[in-house]
Amino acid sequence: MKPNHTKIEKIIVNKAKEFGASLAGIARIEDLKASPSYEVYSRKPFYEEYDRSSPDYHAFKGVEWRPEHKTVLVWALVHPASEPVLDWWSMKVPGFTPGNGVLRRQSKMLRIWLGEELRIQALSLPYQIEYGGAFLKDCAHLAGLGVIGKNNLLVTPEFGTRVRLRGIFMQTELEPTGPIDFDPCKGCHMPCHKVCPRDAFRSGSFERRYCKEENDERYANEEMIDGSVMGIDEPSLVMKPCRYCELACPVAQGSWKN
Ligand code: B12
Question: Is-above-0.85 flag for pTM?
């Protein structure tokens, strides 16, 4: 790694932390294109209307990122079990969850700072892949924030799996800050698999359709919640997503305000 590179990567990562990121790192888009999700997703996107074989197919042309975007800054915001509201979904909340609201604000600050201070053109990424977003777990793995665990989620040494992610594409070549040598699932009795209310790991690995059944039911059972809880002015319907496999992960339990 060239010394001037080390410096700029460190400056960017430190700025993300200064803006409130719990963890941050940099990955190369070229490496992301070689990651497992990229290959799987073009064949089988999450939303049916983007599936080429679906009668509803109308728009999805595979994962499309602009060629001038060379690297991604990815960061994590810790979501301790003691702050469940961070994860609750409401159509009235900017970014849909209070946690995403924080991540969006951080993203805007970082994008502006990258342009103004470092003259790096950057793009704040949308959450969904179909709208140009990136595979954030894969990005985070490549950037060295953690590794993909048996629960199909990013597991970090500092906060276990209890983090949410966000990313910014940058129009500049930088050195990746990862991956790291970390193998938290080795020898683990995998409480994440056993705790799933839908047995989504019955085959030994994550099966999205069962996980989706659980979260669809939670959508069907939305509750009307006071605006003050969600950081908005009016009451709204709120969906509380499932976190069983996430919260069961023993990594870093007790080392943070869980
Ligand atoms: C669509 C989506 C969902 C859908 C579908 C989930 C799915 N995994 O298919 C539903 C609604 C069901 C869902 C559920 C959940 N989600 Co979700 N979801 C997303 C979203 C928007 C896209 C994910 C996606 O479709 N990826 C593409 C598919 C093909 O990948 P995949 O199935 O996840 O599996 C790939 C990786 O695991 C990868 N992989 C596996 N091993 C390895 C090893 C290496 C080295 C690498 C590089 C990659 C890799 O390869 C797999 C494909 O073969 C992301 C945000 C984003 N933009 O990334 C959040 C995201 C992944 N979800 C998140 C969370 C927290 C959850 C839930 C806990 C619910 C909740 N409380 O929010 C559950 C957990 C489910 C689980 N165990 O995976 C977080 C994950 C944070 C973390 N610590 O990892 C994300 C990043 C959102 C965020 N705000 O931070 N989710």
Answer: yes
